């Protein structure tokens, strides 16, 4: 089953958007497979954003992620990686379409509320970076027959 890694960033938690964001993934029809509130270490934040380590915004990005708790999640379902990116919207919240999470709740790229894996391989890497095997539940939602033929 396809899975993706979603993180509600410190601004999303501080702005009390956790319930609203989880609601959107639930209502779309995806299944929650892992969930934890955590204070992120610098080491984890740096590993997570390793691909951006040469970018000018890397340090402020890491500072931001470790500044206050985040909600780390694993969501599963067919096509969840690409669909989650659509639910999240463009990286710059001012460019993100209304109806997306960033489009509805954000105004600045450095405070864009949420992270979602950008590809299936990235999702696998990020899930294993953030979650242990035991922290992920494999289960089937009883609504499945009402969501899929
Ligand atoms: P995304 O989070 O949409 O996958 P990304 O991987 O390009 O975007 O960048 C990771 C995060 O880094 C992004 O959510 C916010 C921050 N970021 C990206 N580009 C930035 C920029 N030009 N200035 C400041 N922060 C930026
Ligand atoms: Mg990215």
TrEMBL record:
GO cellular component: cytoplasm
UniProtKB keywords: ATP-binding, Cytoplasm, Kinase, Magnesium, Metal-binding, Nucleotide metabolism, Nucleotide-binding, Phosphoprotein, Transferase
Location (main, coarse): cytoplasm
EC numbers on record: 2.7.4.6
Domain Nucleoside diphosphate kinase-like, chain residue ranges per copy: 1-138
SMART domains: NDK
Compartments it resides in: Cytoplasm
Family listed: Belongs to the NDK family.
Protein name, per record: Nucleoside diphosphate kinase
């Amino acid at each position: 089953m396809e899975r993706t890694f979603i993180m509600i960033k410190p601004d999303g938690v501080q702005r009390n958007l956790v319930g609203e964001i989880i609601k959107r993934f639930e209502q779309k029809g995806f299944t929650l497979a892992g969930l934890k509130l955590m204070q992120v270490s610098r080491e984890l934040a740096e590993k997570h954003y390793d691909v951006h380590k040469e970018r000018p915004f890397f340090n402020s990005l890491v500072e931001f992620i470790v500044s206050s708790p985040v909600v780390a999640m694993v969501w599963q379902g067919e096509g969840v990686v690409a669909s989650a990116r659509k639910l999240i919207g463009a990286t710059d919240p001012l460019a993100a379409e209304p109806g997306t999470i960033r489009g509805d709740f954000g105004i600045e790229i450095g405070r864009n509320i949420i992270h979602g894996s950008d590809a299936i391989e990235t999702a696998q890497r990020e899930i294993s970076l953030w979650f242990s095997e035991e922290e992920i539940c494999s289960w089937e939602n009883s609504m499945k027959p009402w969501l899929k033929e």
